[in-house]
Amino acid sequence: MNNKNLNVFFINNIKIYYTEKNRTIIDDLENLNFKIPHFCYHSKLSIAGNCRMCLIELKNSPKPLISCAMTLTNKMEIFSHSPLVKKARENILEFLLLNHPLDCPICDQGGECDLQDQALMYGTSKTRFFNFKRTIKNKNLGPIVKTVMTRCIHCTKCIRFANEIANVLDLGVLGRGYSSEIGTYIEKIFNSELSGNIIDICPVGALTNKPYAFVERNWELEQIKTIDFSDSFGNTVLASIKNNSTITKIQPMFCDLNHETFWISDKTRFNFESIFSKERLIKCQLNKIKINNWALLFKEILFIQYFQYHLLFQEFLKQKLNIIIGETLSIELLNILLLLEKKYSFISVYSLEKSNNEKDFETFFFINNLTQNLKLNSSTLILLIGINSRYENSILNIRLQQRYNKGNFKIFVINSLINLLIPYTSINSNSLIFKEILEGNHFLCQELIKAKNPLILYNHSLFLKKTDLNFFFNFLQKFKFNVLNLNYLNSSLVETNINYLATIKKFTLFNFKKTYGFFFFNVLFTNSLLNKFIELLLLKSKINIKNKFKFLLNFNHFEFFQSNKSFLKFYNINIVIDICGSSFYETKENYLTTENIIKTSSKIINQNNLKTYWKIIRQLYNLYSKHFLSFKIEFNQFQKNKFLNFLKLNYFPVANLNNFNLYYKKSFNNLIFSKLNKKIQYVKNYKLLMWLDDFFLGGKDFYSKKSKTLIECSKLSRLKNTNFNYIS
Predict the structure, then answer these.
(1) Beta bridge partners of residue 174, listed in sequence order
(2) Domain spans of the chain, in order of start
(3) Which of 442, 345, 421, 433 is nearest to 385 (CA)?
(4) Same CATH topology for 3-96 and 284-352+507-649?
(5) Tell me, what's the pLDDT at 357?
(6) Which residue, 146, 267, 261, 138, is CA-closest to 202?
(7) Intra-chain end-to-end CA distance of the chain, in Å
């Protein structure tokens, strides 16, 4: 490139070329590793320019300039460490420290406080002011954020975040001059699923982590990079651990400058609390009797299954061992469970929800990359079908909000009435709306045709009903969309893995009658399907249970007997074995995100007495091979459809998937609707219901339901959203 065509500026007499225009001075200098101190500037928020700490000197200018509010111009000569700049920084810090309390030894921000560091680097050791320091009453912002407002320096980062990112207009500046302070205009909590981010962006100790106040210091912590499992994107986060045994906080990766990964939700921040819950199992149990020896435990499991299997075999009863999968299962564990199902005729793998793999979603999956490759910024319309993006995926909702703020973007929703914090047009919540659109009798037809690069996003809630959804695919084919415009949003990492690896059948009453035992993997027993079975038994339905000798292996972090006595009573389960395995933060495993990226979790803390579920099942697999009849499994080119889950990963599960080639690509030459091109004669009438109404405890996140902080947040959120007032 010819340097004559490039713009140039000088920083401390160093000549630098640049191409991008309309960028602020501080943005360019930070990218060039020139350190400019600042408090109010944030690359993902609007410019405030009120801290005045980022002053620089412009040649031939009588006064210093604010680098966060000024843009670079050609042949500009600036100085970042001149005597004028140094003196200005000393004066600014002197003003900021005028009313700041002298409580650094007891401040939770100590060791990572920007004001503390910059006062040491750029400040002076003397002050010219002698006056009483003012005090401000602390605000109650909820169970997550602790406030010490006397420390506030009025950088307004929290206000701008609340207005621009969280879209909750609760925070603002009250008063004028010496009496100004930051708070809520009326006494209320900061009710947002992203409220914890103001802790990270606060440059001083005014906003800190309330649940973990006075717990740790920054220099005592070790930070380890891992992934977020609370949604299907698996964003990278940093976990801070103390003494290699306790997680104290989760925060976003600030080195990643993408909008959609810079912030994290409160569920991501505090769901780790469940693994330190008093309810968590640390030893395996057999009918509430603790077992410390793994060999003895495997012997008991094998004895129970061997006895039951041969007893049924002699009576010619075709009953099976049902493996029911729940949440937060890795690729390795899912693969070996599918392998067990193929190898042994008496084992079946089920899910509590209908799998979507039978609709050929693999084609949608590889291009399911909404936040990066689908050019959301160039789109003018998005249609959300059965999705509450605010609760199902907060990061996606932020992305949609920022696209809407740029203008020329319409959001249409086919769902129950929801609050996305973004203006949108609600079309209908009835399935008959698809028929109207197909017939050309709806205004959305013209909107879709006229829109530039329209996007359609839908999720699993469409498939919870037992109905034929060919009309839905014909609806999409009607407008002949490019396949890149069609996206399927998974609600969790395990849902992504299931929909990609194999077609896993839904557990039904028929399967329940034909079973002699259960394996539950991270199953939530508050699931509506399991409760429905209990209700049918209570109502004396026609379910005839002949086999009284049922056993249950509960692969879970919490004791089965705590709240499931009705489950045992009505399912005639005599033996319950609680197997405590390693949690998400205690093992290194692989997960598939909804963006077709395989990400690896990190082993953050170590529990010597716990094993990963994958290793436990692997050991049972070895025992089965010695005592049970099995099919011979051969992997060859003529059995690709039978073992598609292994071919997709091009790997046989032995240890882990970290050092192997993980992608098995598929041709997309054929149209995705070729198998579903059928005419519709009848459309079932049903409503798309809002399946997720509680962000903090709802959804498919297995761990958040045992988090003390998230339970408190859920209580306050429900009090706000109810039509009744409770007297406590």
Answers:
(1) 181
(2) 3-96, 284-352+507-649, 359-499+670-692
(3) 433
(4) no
(5) 46
(6) 146
(7) 71
* Predicted confidence (pLDDT) per residue in 326-358, tens digit: 777 888 888 888 888 888 878 888 887 765 544
Q: Residues 442-468: what's their mean pLDDT?
A: 74
Q: Is 376 helix (H, G, I), strand (E, B) or coil?
A: helix
The span from the CA of 141 to the CA of 147, in Å, is 8
Measure the CA dihedral 549/555/558/559, to 10°.
Answer: 20
Q: How far apart are CA 531 and CA 515, in angstroms?
A: 18
Element (H, E) at 16: strand 14-18
Q: Are 334 and 642 in contact (CB under 8 A)?
A: no
- Which of 31, 30, 34 minimizes the C-alpha distance to 13? 34
Express each pLDDT in 49-102 by its tens digit.
899 999 999 998 889 999 999 988 888 899 999 999 999 999 999 999 988 998
Decide which of 280 and 160 is more confident.
Answer: 160
The CATH number given to 284-352+507-649 is: 3.40.50
Whether residue 311 contacts residue 584, with contact meaning beta carbons closer than 8 Å, is answered with no
Q: Are 466 and 496 in contact (CB under 8 A)?
A: no
DSSP H helical ranges for 99-229: 114-122, 157-164, 197-201
**Backbone φ and ψ of 511, nearest 5°:** -65, -35
Q: CA angle 442-445-451, nearest 5°?
A: 140
Q: What is the largest CA-CA distance in the chain?
A: 99
Which burial class, exposed, middle or buried, applies to 312 when counting CB atoms under 10 A from its CB (0-12, 13-18, 19+)? middle
pLDDT of residue 630: 61
The domain over range 3-96 is classified in CATH as 3.10.20.740: yes
The backbone torsions φ and ψ at residue 634, rounded to the nearest 5 degrees and listed phi first, read -125, 130
